[in-house]
Structure formats: C-alpha cells, structure tokens
C-alpha cells in the first residue's frame, strides 16, 4: 500500500520570536546593554530591518591637544579629528536538539520544552563568554582586535 508523503513546502514551521529576547533579558550583562552611545555594550538592530552582512560603525577619536586659553590665538592651534570605521560582520550561531516523536511519547517529561530551555541556557552561556572575550580584547589596528593573550607586545 503506497504511503502519502507530505511535500516539504506544506510542512509548517513555527519560529519562536521570543527566544532571543528571553536569553538576552536573563543575561547578567543586560544592565550594561543599550542602544545609546553611552551604553557600555551597544546593541544594534539595523539588520533586523534591512538586508546586509554587517554593520559599519563610525568611530571618532578623542581630542588630545591642549587647546587655547585666555586671549591666545585659536587659529593655528586646531586639531585634526581622527575617525575610522569598524565593521561588525554578522555570523549566525546555531545549535539544535534532536527529539523524535518516540522520544516525546516514551518519556514522562516534556522533552521538547526541556530542549528549548537547554538551548536558551547554551545561548546565554555563549553570549556571556563572547562578551567576556570581547571585553578582554585590545585593538590591533584599524577595525581589528585580538584577545589580550593573543596580542603582540607592540599591540
């Protein structure tokens, strides 16, 4: 007897849009995250609205000159404004849990929700580790960085 095969185009997929928010909200670094330039960890959502492979941030360096005081001439004492771009490339990080219908049927626990919770915990740990690594990195040139342990003495 022939079996009916469901076309892949007819299989519905439901994506949990709340997952990202849940693991960022529960991250201990959340209090330092924000969208303003004064946030220690800046979050951007530009690529959720537009297509692209990365975001280039314009970075402006601090002024270091003494400036002019009193009646001293300002002309001729100007300072060049340093600036450069830093591209942050998008890289998808994925992980999965395999659960068959038999796994779901044979166990007394909700194995699918347990898998979802474990994936969230994995994402939280990954995000925490990535933030700590980034905080321990130093600039090795325009738009490049390395972990402190891997950086050269010159950097």
Characterization of this structure:
By secondary structure, this protein is an alpha+beta fold. It has one domain. Helix content is about 30%, strand content about 15%. The chain has four helices and six strands. The strands form three sheets. Strands 1-2 form a two-stranded parallel sheet. A hairpin with a 2-residue loop joins strand 5 and strand 6. Helix 1 crosses helix 4. The termini are far apart. The mean pLDDT is about 75.
What is the overall pLDDT average? 77
Rg, rounded, reads 25 Å
Envelope shape: elongated
Lateral arrangement of strands in the main beta sheet: 1-2
Strand content: 15-25%
First-to-last CA distance = 71 Å
Oligomer: single chain
Unreliable spans are: none
How many domain modules? 1
- Residues in helices, as a percent range: 25-40%
> How many strand units?
6
List keywords for this structure.
155 residues, alpha+beta
């Amino acid at each position: 007897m022939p079996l009916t095969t469901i076309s892949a185009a007819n299989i519905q997929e439901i994506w949990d849009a709340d997952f990202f928010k849940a693991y960022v909200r529960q991250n201990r670094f959340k209090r330092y995250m924000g969208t303003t330039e004064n946030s220690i960890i800046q979050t951007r959502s530009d690529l959720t609205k537009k297509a692209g492979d990365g975001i280039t941030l314009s970075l402006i360096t601090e002024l270091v000159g003494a400036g002019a005081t009193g009646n001293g001439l300002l002309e001729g004492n100007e300072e060049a404004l340093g600036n450069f771009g830093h591209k942050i490339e998008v890289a998808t990080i994925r992980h999965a849990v395999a659960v068959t219908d038999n796994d779901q049927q044979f166990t007394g626990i909700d194995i699918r929700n347990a898998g979802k919770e474990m994936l969230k915990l994995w994402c939280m740990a990954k995000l925490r580790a990535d933030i700590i690594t980034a905080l321990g990195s130093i600039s090795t040139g325009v738009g490049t960085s390395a972990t402190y342990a891997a950086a050269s003495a010159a950097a």
